[in-house]
Specification:
Blueprint (H helix, E strand, L loop, with lengths): L1 H20 L1 H18 L1 H4 L3 H4 L25 H37 L1 H15 L3 H12 L3 H27 L3 H8 L4 H9 L4 H24 L11 H8 L8 H27 L7
């Protein structure tokens, strides 16, 4: 037991060493830590009341010492709305990616491990969903269920599942042929235990990378749906909703568009850079 723990620690240290060699990935990790920290400690940075407090005299005022990012058309502090909006955007990105990962892992691992009829049924259903572009699939689900945060999460998760199933199935197909899996079968180990104890843990490298980079896509999808009015509804300060609200004031108050847009780009970029770094760090062929 101690030897196995020591081996895991040494593997984690090696992955971290490789990750640190990628400077852009480290920069992405720093940006990601700052954005996540902003979301976690939003109430300490600026009270939520600033998001909803309307000050008529301060309407559409540009950035200043009193209002770092300026104010919107109702006099609400834009800095407070961007800071607290990070909670919505990051929560949607992480929650949808994890939910899609769990469902995709169950379906993809079952298809790759059992093969035959199970594989054919799952793959054909996935093929049907893959025929529809993810954003259109999300729009269809939101249109059917209604525009709110819960339905937005469901819609984005549904659009993300088919890609996860395909990826995990392809990885499991190679892992399922390994000798330790055959040995586990010979000992009478249940299929569920083999899948979750031996197959999926040894296929986690590509899965972790894909999930990390998928969070970026989910944040952009949520922002896009909110931008066209099919996502989180006002007055919730989600970044996409802030962009949608800023359309009317594109020329008179461009800062309303700039600051939420910057944070959407930075968060998306950070997750992508970290994902690229993990791709290199988890590559077993990388020797240096």
């Amino acid at each position: 037991m101690a030897r196995e723990k020591e081996k895991r620690n040494s593997q984690a240290a090696e992955i971290w060493r490789r990750f640190r060699k990628n400077r852009t990935a480290v920069i992405g990790l720093v940006i990601l830590i700052l954005i996540v920290g902003m979301a976690l400690f939003a109430d300490l940075i600026v009270p939520y009341s600033k998001c909803i407090e309307q000050v008529g005299a301060d309407r559409l005022q540009g950035p200043s010492l009193e209002h770092f990012f300026g104010t919107d058309e109702l006099g609400r502090d834009l800095f407070a709305r961007v800071v607290h909006g990070s909670r919505y955007s990051l929560f949607i990105g992480v929650a949808t990616s994890l939910m899609a990962l769990v469902i995709g892992a169950i379906l993809g691992a079952s298809a790759g491990y059992f093969g035959g009829m199970v594989d054919n049924i799952i793959c054909r259903i996935v093929d049907i969903f893959l025929c529809v572009p993810p954003i259109l699939l999300s729009l269809a689900v939101v249109a059917a269920l209604g525009s709110n945060m819960q339905n937005l999460i469901i819609a984005i998760t549904v659009s993300c599942i088919p890609g996860n199933v395909r990826l995990i199935r392809s990885v499991v197909l190679t892992v399922a042929e390994q000798e330790y899996v055959e040995a586990a079968k010979s000992y009478g180990t249940s299929n569920a235990r083999i899948i979750f104890r031996y197959v999926l843990p040894n296929a986690m490298g590509p899965i972790i990378v894909n999930t990390t980079m998928a969070i970026s896509d989910m944040i952009l999808s949520a922002a896009g749906l909110s931008f066209i009015g099919m996502g989180i509804q006002p007055p919730s300060p989600e970044w996409g909703a802030l962009l949608s609200n800023a359309q009317t004031y594109l020329f008179s108050a461009p800062y309303m568009l700039v600051f939420p847009g910057i944070f959407i780009v930075l968060s998306s970029l950070a997750f992508n850079l970290v994902g690229d770094g993990l791709t290199d760090a988890l590559d077993p062929k990388l020797k240096d």
